[in-house]
Structure formats: structure tokens, C-alpha cells
TrEMBL record:
Keywords: Membrane, Transmembrane, Transmembrane helix, Transport. The chain crosses the membrane at residues 40-59, 79-102, 114-132, 153-172. Belongs to the cation diffusion facilitator (CDF) transporter (TC 2.A.4) family. This is Cation transporter. GO terms for molecular function: cadmium ion transmembrane transporter activity; ferrous iron transmembrane transporter activity; zinc efflux antiporter activity. NCBIfam families: CDF. It comes from Chitinophaga silvatica.
Length: 325
């Protein structure tokens, strides 16, 4: 897994280096601040690719005494670093665009610059699609985040090509810094979103999509001894997960039987999370008489109240620290 992730990110790094060089060449030919903006953003791809290589290596290291949950959290730091670099690039582009409004420059060799930009945009599109697909396949936050950033670069480059084509045929040079301002806004937004995702991961903010996926897996394979599941908490470490939860079971179960039920929960969820490892800490609660009305155990020898209906598992009863009903 590590070799595959490193190979993907190294390909990204090499291609980004070539694209960045080509974009700066286009800027030197045309003196377009909008192309300079695009080139500055590409520098971030190179820096982020280098940092991502190290973060992927570190995230793959095994658990130790100082890091009992592993080193996967570094991936959140990686996308936060990338987001901060993108945000800084957005500010630099904003400043440069304002300077060009005050001190405009004559654009040159626009046709050659457009050809270079078109080729680099196509290369970026292929790279972005490759990274997003690889990131999902390998369950890598770093690779997926890198791919999403490059796809944003593609969209801004397409807009830039359209704007420069209009400038080339109309001579409206004022569009150049105007487009650069729009690109700065897009880049600043993208940087903020990556930093926001990084902070939420480092602060263990609940990912409701992951919660819903776990609930869906357990609901589809519900066993009659699983009377309810509550107080669920999910933490993500790179592409691995740690889940705490309470499961209410019949109080008279033998310890071995209860252990088998908990192992079944672990196996089901791990099978549902491909390319990820899910570690469970399960606290078993004994059932009480108030559980009887929704308990699915048909041959319960100690039922004190009649069954009235199954309670569907959802966020509102799985996340709180209380038995259902």
C-alpha cells in the first residue's frame, strides 16, 4: 500500500514540476498577471507534493508506545499545510492583480502563451483525475486532497484560457488583472476549505458520512442479541478509524458468547471499509426491563414486557450516550 501511494504522489510531483516550469515560461512570453497567478498556484502543487510524500511515509509507520493510534493524523496536517500554502498564494495573486490595475503592462505573444496554457491544462486534468481516482482506491486523504486541489487548478486554468482568448481578439487588456482577481478569490476559497478540513480532522470532528456508513452496515446485518447501539464516537487516523460504542445485549449471555457478538461487529465494519483498518473499543451494556419493548430476541427467557416494535438505528439514537427508548 505504501509503495503504491508513494508512486502516485511522486508521479504527481514530477508532472507538477514540468507544468509549473511551462506556465512560468508562458508568463515570461506574455507578461500576463493572470498566467502568473496560475503559475504561482502550480508552485503550491509542487510544494504540497513534496510534503505529501513525507506525510504518506510517516502515516504508514506502525503504532508505538508514543503513538498508540498510529501516525495517520499527519495526513490532516498535510492537507492543512497545503491549504495554508494555497491561501498565501491567493493573497500574493490578489496583491499582484491590484498592482497591474495601477501599473498596467502591455501583453505580448498571446497566441504562444495560450498554446502553452492549453497543453498544461490538459496535463493537469489528466493528473487530477488520476490522483482523485487513486486517492479513493487507496483511501488516502492526502492523495485525494492533492487531486481535488489540482482539479480546482484545472477549472481556473480553463477560465483563464477563455479570458485570454477574449483579450487576444478584442485587446481588452483590463480583463487580465480582473481575471486574476477572480482566480485569487477561487484560490483563497479552496485554501480555506482545505484548512477547515484539516482542523476538523485534528479536532476529531464527527464525520457524519462515516457514521451513516457504520450504521448502514450494522443495520443491514442486525442480530437479535444487539438490542441497541449508542454512544458511538468515530476518530479518523489517515485511512484508518477508531470507533468507541456501547452495545446493549441480554444480561444473561455467557462471556464467550458476548465476546463473539462483539467480534462479529468488528468483522462486519472492517469488511465494509475497504483498504482501511477499523479498530473497535466496545463497551457491553446489560439489558434492563425498559429494553423489552424493542428487543428483537424472539425466545428471550426473561422478557418482562411485550415487544411493541423495532427501533431503527440512526444518528439521533446511535450517537447519544443513552439506551434507546
Amino acid at each position: 500500500m505504501l509503495k503504491k501511494e508513494l508512486r502516485v504522489i511522486l508521479i504527481s510531483l514530477l508532472v507538477s514540476l514540468l507544468i509549473t516550469g511551462a506556465k512560468f515560461a508562458a508568463y515570461l512570453m506574455t507578461h500576463s498577471v493572470a498566467i502568473l497567478s496560475d503559475a504561482l498556484e502550480s508552485i503550491i502543487n509542487v510544494v504540497a507534493g513534496g510534503f505529501a510524500s513525507y506525510s504518506i511515509y510517516l502515516a504508514s509507520q506502525p503504532k508505538d508506545e508514543n503513538h498508540p493510534y498510529g501516525h495517520g493524523k499527519v495526513e490532516f496536517f498535510s492537507i492543512g499545510f497545503e491549504g495554508a500554502m494555497i491561501f498565501i498564494a491567493g493573497i500574493l495573486i490578489l496583491v499582484k492583480a491590484i498592482q497591474y490595475f495601477i501599473f498596467p503592462k502591455e501583453l505580448q505573444k498571446m497566441e504562444s502563451g495560450l498554446w502553452v496554457l492549453g497543453v498544461t491544462t490538459l496535463a493537469n486534468l489528466l493528473l487530477g483525475l488520476y490522483l482523485v481516482r487513486s486517492g479513493k482506491k487507496l483511501s488516502s486523504l492526502t492523495i485525494t486532497g492533492n487531486g481535488q486541489h489540482i482539479m480546482t487548478d484545472v477549472y481556473s486554468s480553463l477560465g483563464l484560457i477563455i479570458a485570454l482568448t477574449v483579450i487576444h481578439f478584442t485587446g481588452w487588456n483590463w480583463l487580465d488583472p480582473t481575471v486574476s482577481l477572480l482566480m485569487a478569490g477561487l484560490i483563497l476559497t479552496n485554501g480555506y476549505q482545505l484548512m477547515r478540513r484539516s482542523i476538523s480532522g485534528l479536532m476529531d470532528e464527527t464525520d457524519m458520512k462515516t457514521v451513516d456508513k457504520v450504521i448502514e452496515i450494522l443495520s443491514a446485518n442486525r442480530r437479535e442479541n444487539w438490542i441497541d447501539i449508542h454512544n458511538m464516537r468515530i476518530q479518523q487516523y489517515g485511512n484508518n478509524y477508531h470507533i468507541d460504542c456501547h452495545i446493549t445485549m441480554p444480561y444473561y449471555l455467557e462471556l464467550n458468547d458476548a465476546h463473539d457478538e462483539m467480534k462479529r461487529v468488528e468483522e462486519l465494519v472492517n469488511n465494509g471499509f475497504k483498504n482501511s483498518e477499523v479498530e473497535f473499543f466496545i463497551h457491553m451494556d446489560p439489558c434492563i426491563p425498559s429494553c423489552c419493548h424493542y428487543c428483537l430476541k424472539s425466545a428471550c427467557p426473561v422478557r418482562s414486557h411485550p415487544f411493541t416494535g423495532e427501533i431503527t438505528w440512526a444518528r439521533d439514537n446511535v450517537l447519544p450516550n443513552r439506551k434507546h427508548g
